[in-house]
Automatic annotation (TrEMBL), chain A:
Residues in ABC transporter domain copies: 4-228
Protein known as: Copper ABC transporter ATP-binding protein
GO molecular function annotations of the record: ATP binding; ATP hydrolysis activity
Native organism: Marinobacter profundi
Highest taxon of the lineage: Bacteria
From TrEMBL, chain B:
Signal peptide region: none
MF terms (GO), sorted A to Z: ABC-type transporter activity
Organism (species): Marinobacter profundi
Protein's name in the database: ABC transporter permease
Residue spans crossing the bilayer: 20-41, 53-75, 112-131, 143-164, 176-199, 249-271
GO CC terms, sorted: plasma membrane
Keywords: Membrane, Transmembrane, Transmembrane helix
């Protein structure tokens, strides 16, 4: 059963479209990264899945039921961007309140607070909490009642590197236990190793969705090889020129080694030729990162357009 | 039902934590005892005047205080959650908007009812114990009627505060509108009624006029606590119209109940259609 399935979903607010023809799904045991500029429609998509709003067109199925149905929302954990709590209550009181609302066991409360690293602060009022501590409390709140679908909007904001690594490890464990997870983040290099699939939104439309390998194929962006010469740069350069014939590769020199941009399908041929020549001492392969892919799909025109509209 | 109680319980424990419950109870008790002891000061002596006079004075003060306290307690019920950033989170829980608002109403309503019961209850007991020759039975009945109608009046203004709280998007605006509601019902309404009365020079339908009092819960409340003593001499100003109301005490009680039920239903409806 899918965690959620958006089919041809559109949402309009005051007649201006916020989302347009979105098809997106999430299976159990999968981490989906949802990316896009501010205002691209990420939060609206999440609100539709949470059942806070109804789509203008299309259908939203969540955990085999209707979005917003109490039986469904009981199994969803959500961490909003910039999560806030009642300042006069302690972390333990707040989490107990939310546990009661969710019908989760109160025994979970201290366990979860320990798990997110608030063990020592659970009896302090949240107005004394730092941003990172509020974020951890928000995370504990999202984990109440063992959700089957977990949606986290910028979960690492305010977290230190160790806490961030802990969070991602926790998400991996949850995924392995079958939880479907949606991660919205602007820290692309941070989430790249942890997501199974990525979806990229611009101006309310889904630009691309799939695992990283598929997105790389779709983007057809060059792979960068960095080759350290065994003898001289010139020798190595000659080998590359011969191997790539008239393909017109882009070659630059950096720190005494060559950086070569090559189309993905020509990568192996070039590598084999270079290896056979014996002119190479070291090889590094740089696949386009999530950030590169993101910029490719969003396009720099998007940024210019946004700047112009202000 | 469980989630309504969870919300109510938090509101109740909030009002215990921030001492609201205690403060309101204290104000009520002090007020009641002060009026009971110095009620006869106008006629040149210190001491307990009479039960009807004490209740009438309490009701006259009550119409200023009860609406104000109720509005203050409840004006930020929804808009406060929204500004605090918790409304969105609450709505992602298995909790409908109606359940949230009803939970708030139970919490705030219970806070006000408890404060009224404790504050005026203590005063009633003190009067019964300390004043010689007071007719306990009639005092108990009058006190019970007074407390019950005070609670209903308070609930009415809590519900009116919710109508504002679910509509506006900023707390200061909600506070301003709550004050406007207070101003209208407590000060303006009677003046307008009096003005109409005088300006119409008796041409206004005399049978219709008393019914206008039913449009103000504070007037119903005062009538209820004064008319019960068959002592229409206490009815002053526009309230003297109330002597001509053909509906009796039961009608007044129904009026007070409607005055909290209808605004509450309105607030629920408005909240359901609100965009989050």
């Amino acid at each position: 059963m899918s965690c959620f399935r958006l089919e041809n979903v559109s949402y309009r607010y005051d007649k201006s479209p916020v989302l347009h023809g979105i098809d997106l799904r999430l299976e159990a045991g999968e981490i989906l990264g949802l990316f896009g500029h501010n205002g691209a429609g990420k939060t609206t998509s999440i609100k539709l899945i949470l059942g806070l709003m109804q789509p203008t067109e299309g259908s939203v199925a969540v955990l085999g039921g209707q979005a917003g149905d109490p039986q469904v929302t009981q199994h969803i954990g959500y961490l909003p961007e910039n999560v806030m709590f009642y300042p006069q209550l302690t972390g333990r009181e707040i989490l107990s309140h939310f546990a009661r609302l969710k019908g989760a066991s109160l025994k979970q409360v201290p366990v979860l607070l320990e798990q997110v690293g608030l063990g020592d602060a659970m009896d302090a009022r949240t107005k004394t909490y730092s941003k990172g501590m509020r974020q951890r409390l928000g995370l504990a709140q999202a984990l109440l009642g063992k959700p089957r679908l977990l949606m986290l909007d910028e979960p690492t904001v305010g977290l230190d590197p160790v806490a961030t690594a802990d969070l991602y490890r926790l998400l991996r464990d949850l995924r392995d236990e079958g939880t479907g997870i949606v991660l919205c983040s602007h820290v692309l290099p941070g989430v790249e190793p942890y997501i199974d699939r990525a979806a990229i939104l611009t101006e309310g439309t889904l630009k691309a969705a799939g695992d990283l390998a598929a997105l790389r194929r779709q983007a057809n962006m060059p792979v960068t090889l960095s080759l350290a010469p065994a003898h001289t740069l010139a020798d190595l350069e000659k080998v590359i020129d011969e191997a790539s014939a008239s393909n017109g590769l882009m070659i630059r020199t950096e720190n005494g080694s060559l950086r070569v941009d090559v189309q993905p399908r020509e990568k192996m041929a070039l590598l084999q030729a270079v290896m056979a020549s014996g002119e190479v001492a070291d090889v590094g392969i740089h696949q386009p990162s999530l950030e590169d892919i993101y910029v490719h799909f969003i396009g720099s025109g998007g940024l210019a357009h946004r700047g112009g509209s202000q | 039902m469980m989630s309504i109680w969870t919300i109510a319980r938090k509101e109740l424990s909030d009002s215990l934590r921030n001492r609201w419950l205690m403060a309101i109870s204290l104000v009520f008790a002090t007020l009641a005892l002060g009026i009971a002891w110095f009620g006869a000061a106008a006629s040149g002596q210190v001491g307990y005047a009479s039960t009807p006079a004490t209740i009438a004075s309490l009701a006259s003060l009550g119409i200023f205080l009860i609406p104000l306290i109720a509005l203050l307690l409840a004006y930020d019920a929804i808009v406060g959650e929204e500004e605090g950033g918790t409304l969105l989170l609450l709505m992602t829980y298995p909790l409908s908007r109606s359940q949230l608002l009803l939970g708030k109403f139970f919490g705030h309503g219970l806070t006000l009812a408890l404060a009224t019961l404790i504050g005026f209850g203590v005063a009633g007991v003190a009067i019964a114990l300390l004043v010689k020759d007071v007719a306990i039975a009639s005092l108990a009945v009058a006190m019970f009627r007074f407390i019950a109608s005070t609670v209903l009046l308070g609930w009415g203004f809590i519900a009116l505060a919710y109508v504002v709280s679910v509509r506006v998007s900023e707390k200061p605006i909600a506070a301003g509108m709550a004050l406007a509601i207070w101003f209208f019902f407590v000060l303006i309404f009677d003046l307008m009624l009096l003005g109409t009365l005088v300006a119409s020079e008796g041409k206004f339908n005399a049978e219709l006029l008393p019914w206008l009092l039913m449009f103000n819960p504070t007037d119903i409340y005062r009538l209820l606590n004064i008319v019960a003593f068959d002592d229409t001499a206490q009815l002053s100003g526009v309230l003297s119209l109330g002597a001509d109301l053909p509906i009796g005490a039961a009608g007044l009680w129904i009026g007070l109940v409607l005055w909290f039920a209808l605004p509450l239903a309105g607030a629920l409806l408005l909240f359901r259609n609100r965009r989050i």
